[in-house]
Amino acid sequence: MHTIVYDNPDQLARSTAEKIIGTVEHNPNALLCLAGGETPRLTYRYTAAIAKDKGIDFSAVQFVSLDEWIGVSTSNTGSCYYFLQQMLFAPLDIPSANIHFFDACAVDLDAECKRIDNIIGQLKDIDLMLVGIGMNGHIGFNEPGVAVDQAAHTTVLDISTQQVGQKYFLENTALQKGITLGMAQFMQAQTAILLASGITKAAIIKKALEEEITNAVPASFIQKHGNAFVMLDMAAASLLQ
Ligand code: F6R
Fold first, then answer.
1. Cα dihedral sign for 5, 11, 12, 17?
2. CA-based, 20 to 30 A from 144: which of 97, 120, 151, 161?
3. What is the dihedral of CA 144, 182, 26, 93, to 10 degrees?
4. At residue 220, what are phi and psi to the nearest 5 degrees?
5. Nearest one of 38, 64, 191, 45 to 122, comparing CA atoms
6. Nearest Cα residue to 39 out of 132, 128, 165, 139
7. How far apart are CA 36 and CA 23, in angstroms?
8. Pocket of ligand 1 (CB under 6 A)
9. What single string gives the DSSP state of each residue in 170-208?
């Protein structure tokens, strides 16, 4: 695990964008799994801008969902799909056939998990998985206590995740459950990036990186990942030894 600390959120975002771009330059058919949430917003803005500037072709890149709020449709502005569509898929002209996202309104959500697991299996592993960290240490919607050998699954969300999640929505929304890739898929990704910014993430970053590896803090498993980068700004890193 490599921990890299940047002076400010702008440098953090620019360097993370360059890592995404570098992955695609190296492998134009790469399979990427990119988190929603506030943290990577600037990273995605830079990714789209650098790709345009350098003329990087994203047309063969494949994207797989990290997670989604169950019952929230792709047209809801708070959905992970909508966010990534706005930030990356539309600006980069990603063909819809290359976008493999959970349908969080599917009647059979177990079948939906299997569908996404199979797509990842067919595409042969995730090349780059970029995740944020929840205030409770979650990755995707792998909440504290998660069985870490799981692939895609549905879960009851922590109360804190339900409450914090309201920030993405224009109106109060029921967010009791989520559908998510599992920790097994995180651990198998060729490269994993954990991105965190701001003082509010400092305590959970310290716990995840410097304390025991435990499913009570799912992000702590990054310590065991074979090729992981923890990319932080100074504020998020401020409690590290
Ligand atoms: C969102 C996701 C979540 C967030 C995490 C941090 O797709 O997977 O695990 O990454 O909750 O959210 P922000 O970045 O909004 O602090």
1. negative
2. 120
3. -100
4. -65, -20
5. 64
6. 132
7. 19
8. 35-39, 66-67, 80, 131-134, 138, 140
9. SS-----EEEE--HHHHHHSSEEEEEE-SGGGHHHHHHH
- Is this structure's pTM higher than 0.85? yes
Residue range 208-230: mean pLDDT, rounded = 98
Stated as kind and residue range, the H or E segment containing 5 is strand 2-6
- Map tokens 């920030």 to a residue: 167
- Which single residue is written with the structure tokens 């964008």? 17
Nearest atom in ligand 1 to 167's CA:
15
- Give pLDDT tens digits for 103-131: 999 999 999 999 999 999 999 889 999 99
In this structure, what token pair is assigned to residue 222?
Answer: 């990054």
Q: Which two tokens stand for residue 150?
A: 């799981």
**Amino acid (1-letter code) at residue 231:** M
Which of 42, 72, 138 to mutate to test ligand 1, by most ligand atoms within 8 A of the CB atom? Answer: 138
List the catalytic residues: 67, 136, 138, 143
Among the listed residues 130, 104, 127, the one whose alpha carbon sits nearest the alpha carbon of residue 116? 104
Question: Which of 63, 66, 70, 197 gets mutated to test ligand 1 (max ligand atoms within 8 A of its CB)?
Answer: 66
State the pLDDT at residue 124.
86
Place of tokens 């990603």: 94
Side chain identity, residue 13: A
- Going by alpha carbons, the residue nearest to atom 12 of ligand 1 is 37
The model's pLDDT over 42-90, given as tens digits with 9 standing for 90+, comes to 999 999 999 999 999 999 999 999 999 999 999 999 999 999 999 999 9
What are the pLDDT digits (tens) for 176-188? 999 999 999 999 9
